[in-house]
Amino acid sequence: MHHDDFFESLNAQFQDALPFVAYRTPNENQVNAVFQHDDTLYETKDLSESGFVFAPFDDASKMVLMPLAASDLECCDAFEGTASEQVNSELVSTSNQKIAYIETIKKAISAIAQTDLKKVVLSRPDYVTKDNLEVFEVFKRLLATYKTAFVYCWYHPKIGLWLGATPETLLKIEGQRMSTMALAGTQVYKGTTEVSWGTKEAQEQQFVTDYIVSNLDAEVEHVSTSERRTVRAGGLLHLQTQISARLGKDYSGLLHIVRALHPTPAVCGLPKAEAKAFILEHEGYNREYYSGFMGELHFKKRQTRNTNRRNVENNVYATVKTVSNLYVNLRCMQVLPSKIALYVGGGITKDSNPEAEWEETVSKTSTMKKVLF
Known about the structure:
Blueprint: H1 3-15, E1 20-24, E2 31-36, E3 42-44, E4 51-55, E5 63-67, E6 71-76, H2 95-114, E7 119-129, H3 135-145, E8 150-156, E9 160-166, E10 169-174, E11 177-188, H4 199-216, E12 220-225, E13 229-233, E14 236-247, H5 254-261, E15 269-270, H6 272-282, E16 293-303, E17 319-328, E18 332-336, E19 339-349, H7 354-369
Antiparallel strand pairs: 1-2, 1-8, 2-6, 3-5, 4-5, 4-16, 7-15, 7-19, 8-9, 9-18, 10-11, 10-17, 11-14, 12-14, 13-14, 16-17, 18-19
Helix pairs in contact: 2-7
Protein name: Isochorismate synthase
InterPro entries: ADC_synthase (IPR005801), Chorismate_C (IPR015890)
Pfam family, one: Chorismate_bind
């Protein structure tokens, strides 16, 4: 479908107040969309269905599903938009916000000193006043600006409108193979990925990798981890380790793997249960779908072994694989009446400097604000 028609279909669905999600996976050009036929709010309890899932940070809340059985799929080829200009939007963050956030960071640092807590991720909403947001223009700018991210625009009339560009994969399953990543550490991108990382970041990265591997143990076999590498996400750099495995003989379904991984140390902390309890008690607002996860659930994808189209007889060996691609909902925004909530956070450890952590959240929101103006 040509991209003008594609965006017209999206707009028509939005005007009719019907649920949809449009998204593009990292390093791809094709944008996909799921158009739900009615405005029913479907939920998945065990992630066994086929559809697009949108799940909150706190697993006590509903995981929303747009089921393939009740939807149409569309795609638009090779969308090339223009990236947002590097404008310096005035960064107005009220001093009250700063005082409150720094206060919570100090509480976290002292909890880390006194308990088993090693790391806790603290976040905050940052509001931008804006009427009549051109939703699809912002989506196009996100697509053009964040080529290596999972970029999405998700809407349900009974929940609301969310957009984002996340660098973090929660998990990918193709047939029997699964992969995930450990992501930690942040520094500003200054033209090169050849940078050095401090002990704090390297340690944090190792924590996260070990934690994921030990948590997956019961469900998978043949686990392997890659070398640590520096990856770029927009204007920021992170440390990343790839982790892959095969679903084991005792694999008991996707929900168990998701429970082992979500919420990840990158959005929650370590140990997970203690960090989550600290967040729910002290953060002071409801994250809702920020730092939850979303993506394709049990999509059937046809894969041919032979990429040379002329060699027809080998195409008989095409296999249909069941694929799930889930991403953590980071770098996202929620469109509210007359304002937009941008969500941002950082990992607090015993060595954190509260003022520097605040500054890091400011630089993260400034990269997101650029697509709004």
